[in-house]
Q: What sequence folds into this?
């Protein structure tokens, strides 16, 4: 019977591994806004140290991963399919073995530690509750397998169900629950051991949009109240921005950028991150001049635009300028003195309730987007209208070309 809790194949829905390490030892912390981060990599709760993964002995799915995760942090691994994020989670859980490098948990190397001895709770997208058991029995079963007494089992089950506000459903079977309720039970099962670390692999992917958004806040609030460390995998950018303390953006087996949600959105490090996180306007050009933290970029159609140089350094260098739609302004009086303006033609105006999404033809592109709030007195543009647009230099970033 123990194989039910040590094998992903037998218990792929929500794998509760073992109880947490309660030594009380922990890293030193400093505050950076609302985010608590480990002071040094050696103090981190989870460490990937030069980790690589290959399935065929030739190509690397994960390429030299170095990542430190602080105790109590909510870190999301975000990226497209095949980027390596899920493989990293599976190596941390113990379901995959690192080809090279070391993974440490609370300062202890765990490459050779079997999954059921790592002190980890896990939730998968396919929660796979035992259909013949009640909710209470689903949570109690792994505790019973480990020889825990009846009274202690019952107390832990009720506490875990109360955490997810499902105490009243203890005697129901999974078939009597909605998808969202089943996901709450899967989450409770991952928490029933009081694990110090919980891993979540696309746990909300099977839910509809409204319920998924509601569960995002529930999981985040639960994390905040319990103070557990969460490593979360998703390809949904909005989900990552909503829930995370930090986000590691993966592509081609590497972390492209590791930062807070605000830093990722406002200050992407490269063209991939700028294009992957949120909606983004892209204008390719050549650097005309760089001075005073400001790049002057000439577009193929001859116009000059302003941007902040990120990973371009010299005149004549090709670049891709990234501008978020909500940072573009069509009221020149609201722009800083000296900002360059560029001609645009309105192609389409889409009413979205709280905002207007306007598509423009700009410098040969007919998919340039601006977003403006639907406020009292807001001027609504009309298709065919000719306008001039601009932005503050700090709101556009001159990045590596695509």
A:
């Amino acid at each position: 019977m123990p194989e039910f809790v040590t094998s992903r194949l037998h218990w792929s829905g929500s794998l509760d591994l073992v109880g947490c390490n309660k030594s009380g030892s922990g890293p030193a912390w400093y505050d950076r806004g609302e985010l608590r981060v480990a002071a040094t990599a050696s103090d981190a709760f989870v460490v990937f140290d030069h980790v690589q993964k290959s399935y065929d002995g030739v190509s690397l799915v994960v390429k030299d991963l170095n990542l430190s995760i602080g105790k109590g942090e909510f870190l999301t691994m975000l990226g497209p399919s095949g980027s390596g994020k899920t493989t990293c989670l599976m190596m941390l859980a113990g379901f995959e073995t690192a080809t090279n490098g070391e993974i440490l948990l609370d300062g202890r190397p765990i490459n050779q530690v079997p999954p059921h001895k790592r002190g980890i709770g896990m939730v998968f997208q396919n929660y796979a509750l035992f259909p013949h058991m009640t909710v209470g029995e689903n949570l109690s079963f792994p505790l019973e397998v480990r020889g825990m007494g009846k009274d202690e089992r019952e107390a832990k089950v009720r506490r875990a169900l109360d955490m997810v506000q499902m105490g009243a459903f203890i005697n129901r079977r999974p078939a009597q629950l909605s998808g969202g309720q089943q996901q709450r039970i899967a989450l409770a099962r991952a928490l029933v051991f009081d694990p110090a670390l919980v891993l979540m692999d696309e746990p909300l992917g099977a839910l509809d949009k409204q319920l998924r958004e509601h569960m995002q806040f529930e999981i985040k609030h639960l994390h905040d109240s319990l103070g557990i460390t969460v490593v979360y995998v998703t390809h949904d950018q909005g989900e990552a921005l909503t829930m995370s303390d930090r986000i590691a953006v993966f592509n081609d087996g590497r972390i492209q950028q590791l930062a807070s949600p605000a830093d990722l959105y406002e200050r992407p490090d490269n063209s991939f991150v700028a294009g992957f996180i949120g909606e983004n306007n892209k204008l390719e050009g050549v650097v005309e001049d760089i001075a005073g933290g400001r790049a002057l970029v000439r577009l193929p159609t001859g116009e000059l635009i302003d941007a902040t140089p990120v990973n371009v350094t010299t005149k004549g260098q090709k670049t891709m300028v990234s501008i978020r739609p909500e940072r573009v302004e069509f009221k020149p009086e609201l722009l800083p003195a000296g900002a360059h303006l560029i001609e645009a033609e309105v192609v389409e105006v889409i009413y979205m309730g709280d905002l207007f999404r306007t598509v423009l033809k700009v410098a040969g592109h007919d998919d340039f987007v601006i977003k403006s709030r639907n406020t009292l007195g807001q001027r609504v543009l009309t298709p065919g209208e000719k306008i001039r647009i601009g932005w503050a230099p700090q709101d556009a970033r001159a990045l590596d070309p695509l």
